[in-house]
């Protein structure tokens, strides 16, 4: 089947495909899917010892963490409110890894986008919301991927012209936002030097920047952690992000990609962080279908909840999940991921 670029899909979807699937088949809720608020884990890292490497911690995360608007093809998370209110709900549930996509706006500001769609929030909302949460829950630490969202192609957004470069604006926030100054883990936000994987005791109350990706993928300068020097668009070292799911029949392939990478996470270098995206989409398989399932095909989220609950009599041992980046995670799945951490 012909695969269309996501940017083109975003532009064409409203006009060429009204509704590819009966929505009641993909909007049901269960322990794995669309039940974020049933999990309550605002201080779960409190029980994890300081000496624990970030690589050893099983972390639930969200893909396109603030993608709430624009219709079924662009919405990736339950809507708990614009202006980053959704982050508060995710943080309280136990989410600690975030995927933030930014567009350059007038006056050298960042606003949050998913493709061409503005998500009714700006970067100050993100930083201030996280700052408030970490002030109330100082035991916690966050992991964040930042991406320059606009490619300027048809169906994508275009950065406002006449502004500073993306990384210059990022540095302006880093150096001038009180929230950013309090919360960025400094070794991870330096343009010229990447950071080693930290222990939890070094980053409590902080945001660890994993990487800044450019609009076409690829790492920008040396920001983030050194191990992610090869984080590109899609799959790369330590990252599984096969985001093209061309139709609902291909959800099974996506499930297998997630499973294989989860097995790798448990068998490969245990000093490294592995980031496993459970998300995917196309014109014929919207994000909610990939996450929750559709037309008799099991979604990634219910598959993961079952797989993580099985023992070594069924498959290879799972002793850590790595960072699992999910669309529409349910409370039961969040709690299951957290259960792989010591003392939880």
From TrEMBL:
Keyword terms of this UniProt record: Signal
Coiled coil: none
Protein's UniProt keywords contain Nucleotide-binding: no
InterPro entries documented for this protein: PI-PLC_domain (IPR051057), PLC-like_Pdiesterase_TIM-brl (IPR017946), PLipase_C_PInositol-sp_X_dom (IPR000909)
Keyword Secreted: no
Superkingdom: Eukaryota
Gene Ontology annotations of biological process type: lipid metabolic process
Signal peptide stretch: 1-18
Domain Phosphatidylinositol-specific phospholipase C X: 54-212
GO molecular function: phosphoric diester hydrolase activity
PANTHER family reported for this sequence: PTHR13593, SI:DKEY-266F7.9
Protein name: 1-phosphatidylinositol phosphodiesterase
